[in-house]
## 1
Amino acid sequence: MTPLHIDLGAPLSLAETHPGSRVELFCGSCTWSRSYRPDRIVAGLQAKKLGDRQTAIAAVAHLVHWPCPGCNRMRWGSRLLTP
Ligand SMILES: [Zn+2]
């Protein structure tokens, strides 16, 4: 998987044009990361009324309110990985 170069405002709906892409949540302090299906992220945001498919991919990181399992900090980033 390769990180796609996108601007900060690129919405989650962009993933729909890249079949098999994943949204990666990564820690800015250590090497921990995990990737998720974009449609699951959208469904989760909608369920919590935090966003929808127009939510920026980069903004997903700001909605994470748990510390990194690797280093216990909260320095999240999020990006789109393409196959
Ligand atoms: Zn970490």
## 2
Amino acid sequence: MPQSQSTTSISMAPTRPVPFVRPLPTATRRHPTADRGRPDARGEWLRFAPVQPLFRARAAQRLAVLAYHGVTDHRSFGAQLDRLRRLATPVSLTAVLQAVTEQRPLPPRSVLVTFDDADRSVLTHALPALDARGIPATAFVISELIGTERPFWWHEADFLARHGGRARSLDCGHPSQLLPRLKAMPDPDRRRSLHELRVSADRRPPRQEQLTPADLLALRDGGVAIGNHTQGHPCLGRCDDATVRAEITGAHEALTRWLGEPPIAFAYPDGGHDPRAETVLQELGYRLGFLSDHRLGPRIPSHPLQISRLQVDSTTSTRRFDTILSGLEPAYRRWRRQAVA
Ligand SMILES: [Zn+2]
């Protein structure tokens, strides 16, 4: 794999300008403080919890795979990367694969940086910051968006619903429930509802310039490996068997064509493991699969097609970032969920 710790320059980047198109607003991923230009500092106090040193020591013997989406705050993102350089051992996808193949643990404090959905900010903001620090990464792309100006379907649905869009199965319920309800539907119903929203809304959503096949090559040559994130990002658990297969295979074929080699890594859309997907991945020769379960994992991944990841955001304050990396914030979140259940 050409990706890795290499500090290959980004001279392969396309010569045309690459304007950053801010994604449509989403209520689901960013914390409100981020919109006011301040880092997301929720739960920062955990950093001073007496158990934090214990968690940090334990985390040193685990693999942390960070799951970002885009980079909306490049200053805060840069501070996080500096933190990784100082306190962790950034590793490449190839190094994780090697650990699996040779059954040899990754170095202590290993961290793999990943991006799901891969909007243009991965090229315009993340790549220069990673390249400047020699930190490798992996981006999981939605193949049917590559080379288009189509927004992510969840941004589109949110916009359409706020501009008069209606769908039979979404008629009642609070607007904040729109995305959870779309994600919970059988996939054909989600597609039908999206269609109804499109034809009934009084405005079209703004276009969102996506990465192109040439951008994927520029990322790869700059040390960001490219992985499969399906063709259209459905919730696989809501799809029938044929759709699960078509979503993975379609993206696999497109990526192989663009990159000149088959991808070896996959990230489950919405982070949920699907056993039918795993079967297809095995058949296609995938070696690594990533969840979004907000957990650390072993330094030799015991289930290479079900590798845990921690959810982070470029707006996360460095103190909060520390508690996520140590596993304390994820453990606290699980404990709180159980306590209210
Ligand atoms: Zn995704």
